[in-house]
Input
Amino acid sequence: MSKDNCKQTTCQENSYANEILDWMATEEYKEKNFAREALVINPSKACQPYGAMLCALGVDGCLPFVHGSQGCAAYFRACLSRHTREPIPLVSDSMTEDAAVFGGQANLVEGLRNAIATYKPSIIAMFSSCMAEVIGDDMKSFIANARTQGAVPEDFPIAYGNTPSFVGSHIIGYDNMLKGLLQSLADTRQGKWTNGRLYVVPGFDLYPGNLREYKRMITAMGIYMTMLPDPTEALDSPNTGEYKMYQPGTPMAELADALNASAFLFTQKYSTAGTQKFVKNVQKINSEAVTMPVGIRNTDEFLMTLHKMTGKSIPAELEAERGRAVDAATDAHQYIHGKRFALYGDPDLLLGVVGFLLEMGGIPVHIVCTNGNETFHKEMDRLLASSPFGTEGKVYLGKDLWHLRSLLMTDPVDMLIGDSHGKRLAKDAKIPLARIGFFLTDRVHLHRQPIIGYQGAINLVTMIANMFIDEYDRNCPDERFEVLR
Ligand code: SF4
Output
């Protein structure tokens, strides 16, 4: 092919590609895209074991253990490492083709023996990948057999949770593992006696900054608490020059005593639904679940719930923080008020962030929740209906980021809010992406800064308002380019 021909072909190819791209931004393409049934493109979710791993990392001395394929374990470790930039301990019993045919018991027994001998954990939290669930492996009896065969000491604590990846998502896996930890390792409740502790369950939250903020606020109220699980240090450990496989988490003694809690507070509703039922309905423990405290109103509700549950008053320190958050929101409201947003992510996070946007006068338009359910849909609709800024908001359950692309192209917004997976959409739609959510793999340290509580509200206002100001500075005409904004 001659150079000229080549140029001509490239030119034709480019023009054809541009034609396709233009068509992909039309209502006609959107309709076809929304009619697709047999294909998912870039869903905003991970599989169940991923959530189970996070839960397991929050227990002191605990080794997360995947009963299933080695590749799955590598994927979970890599994904979390890329978000946190920390080494993540996780082992698997490396089931392969023969285990898929004959069952994974031999792998599980040998895996436990090796893991205990090599990595010397205090506890193992086991969960399953697709393969083990498809063939119906019974982890409970396999673990019992491992003890009988002497692969595991009789009294060595092992919890397990079934985490079939072909249903649900990482938030269900987190919930299943947490319930599994309580069912396997917590002592029986001692009648009406309590240990006087409030057990705070943060839910699927990959921001160590959030976890530290919960503990700071609750401790400031003088409440005697245990965070369960507590992966703060696993997600953000100090660099001391010495590798420690196990970072401090919820102490085993406090996990064992969990069912004697004076009460449980769940700061996410949808990633802990099964554990809430177990604690409240089965164990009859006083418990409350609040909307993730993102924004001022949700933080108020969180603190007032703590007050109601414990009788402790809200200290002046937190009142002053609230005042600073209101001040920050007021000073920056003009940059966010009236701006249109598209969001995607987990149900608990979306409820929190949409609540925050509404109180800033932002207009949530497209809300994509791949892993939300009908209860979430109704709750989000109620939230949107509670504000004059919520009238344009529409929830898309079970949809993915390719659906969201069509929405952005046919009904544009000013900003996209979500995790790093949305960066291509934001680029195509020529709008900024505010990186809020899980997983943040293409920016550094965002997970260290809280987005919950009053301090989190200040951080969100700062991030979003400054992104709009940056956009304006980049695109405004010369005569509008000012030092003052
Ligand atoms: S979906 Fe199944 S195969 Fe894929 S990583 Fe999750 S557990 Fe492994």
Observations:
- The chain has three domains: 48-185, 198-237+245-310, 324-478.
